[in-house]
Amino acid sequence: MTRFLVSLLLGVTLLAAPLAAQDGPLRIEITEGVIEPLPFAVPDFVPDSPDAAQAASDLARVVAADLSGTGLFREIPASAHIGSVSDFNAPVQYADWKAINAQALITGAVSVAGNNLTVRFRVYDVFSGAELGTGLQFAGTVDGWRRMAHKVADAVYSRITGEGGYFDSRVVFVSESGPKDQRRKRLAIMDYDGANVQYLTDSAELVLAPRFSPNGDRVLYTSYESDFPRIYVLDVDAVQRRMLEQAEGSMSFAPRFAPNGQTVVFSLERGGNTDLYTLDIASGQQTRLTSAPSIETAPSYSPDGSQVVFESDRSGAPQLYIMPASGGEATRISFGQGRYGTPVWSPRGDLIAFTKQNKGRFHIGVMRTDGSEERLLTASFLDEGPTWAPNGRVIMFSRETQGAEGRSSLYSVDITGRNLKQVRTPEGASDPSWSPLQK
Amino acid sequence: MGNLGKWIMAAALLGLAACNDPARLGDGMGGDASAGNGAFAPGSSSDPRSPSFFQQAIGDRVLFANDQSALSPEARATLDGQSKWLLTNTDYTAVIEGHADEKGTREYNVALGARRANAVREYLVTTGVPANRLKTVSYGKERPIEICSVEACYAKNRRAVTVLAGGLTG
Predict the structure, then answer these.
(1) Is A272 in Cβ contact with B142 (below 8 Å)?
(2) ipTM entry
(3) Banded model confidence at residue A26, pLDDT cuts 50, 70, 90
(4) From residue B107, how far is each of A158, A190, A312 by CA, in Å?
(5) What are the chain A neighbours of B107 within 8 Å (beta carbons)?
(6) Quick count: other Cβ atoms within 10 Å of Cβ A432?
(7) In Å, how far is A381's CA from the nearest CA of chain B?
(8) Chain B contact set for A431 (CB, 8 A)
(9) Are A219 and A212 spatial neighbours (Cβ–Cβ below 8 Å)?
(10) Is the distance from CB of B164 to CB of B92 less than 8 angstroms?
């Protein structure tokens, strides 16, 4: 009986083998499309003193949630653990973790001194019987303990996938309440996982589509505060806003920062016609990029700032185009059936995410920057407004349900189309914008 | 002044305040249908000089086909009525609000609503309404009046509403 169980476990291990090569170092190749998530264990971190015990346990839980939330990893719960870690520096008993088929083991230690919190951690490749990389330490505040956990999880994710992490990041979005015909909207910011929600405006004025600056210190958004849509810039830490200089008698919307953090590209409407412009925030210098009788909107810069992808109905229906950042001739890149909108350039530069409307359904999709290899990741009554995780591997977007009771929520999905899930928010939510990794 | 006089004064002031509200002088929701029989009560929908007459008898809104900003013959007829009223009641200005249904991205729908509002404004201007009395704004898909997700609701949400402001300034 015992022998049978062992061989069964070995069988399971072999089946799981392709996702983490047993011969080489522990590794997930994200691009190959992971079917089975990699099993890992995160025993509670070891507190250096009794007053660090709560943080030590909480930190381990958030690290586990971050990793499991990617869909690439699967936590083996503490109830299944045979071994335990009570000394961060003691040698790891690999057999205990092999026995429960944990391929990765994450251990940590937490110390608290006043309002300062320090976390140390190590990652082990259980089946190789070796540490993966070397131990690291992050220091922060007790109040900022979740960020410390996200930093640990980012490091673990990076070591195993070879990709940059995305957990120590935030999302600014529109928080929504009330029925469809009396909807109230206000700006809110939260951690990427929905924790620490903070409201940045009240619900008195309609606000649309906040967008982070390249270093996450400011947010551009559209507000009807003046009774007309205008672009505002908000300092995230000070929660102070000001309207950007804009032409009288016009409407401005759909702003996005250039990678330099100084230039804003946006839509400006005059006489019913919407074109693209840039504005230099410091000088107020406004430059026109397009001059067409069609609608030009939803512009987004390439990560190197040299090009802008945008939406235009110059062909008769909305499609995606790329032009030089200074304006000039645009090249159409979307040619599939349906209507394409809100293109957003990946921070890696390789892909463009978009909203697609076809046969009464909405999709979030990605395509290469030349329009090839279009891939639809979602389908629903109304999906729109994609935003990229800092590592360019995950997309967050808004999904609105149908009918009189329709409500908007945030979802995230892998660029493989896997791991679609809702991001919990206190109220309805739309128009997410993902920050870069925090410093 | 007796009590009755005070009451009439207060009523007049209230009326003045209501008509001077520059924000939204009737957005198609309100309107006063309580006018008595016979001669119209000033300010009621049967008073041809009242905003509620503009909203209800003439019609403060025109509707559009899916993803279109072209004016239908019905829309032109309504706008001819609006134009006549605006040319008679010269102390009013108007903000034309363009709207779209929910089938479209947020940004595109703001731009589409702007096209619709501008189509109405241009038509009113060609019929003689001074351009400086007409402003436009687009709410895209942000302000539906009907909330079902079928064409019957969408058709009513694809609209441009002429919202009066000012009045009693002359």
Answers:
(1) no
(2) 0.91
(3) confident
(4) 35, 24, 11
(5) 209, 253-254, 267, 297-298, 311, 341-342
(6) 25
(7) 9
(8) 106
(9) yes
(10) yes
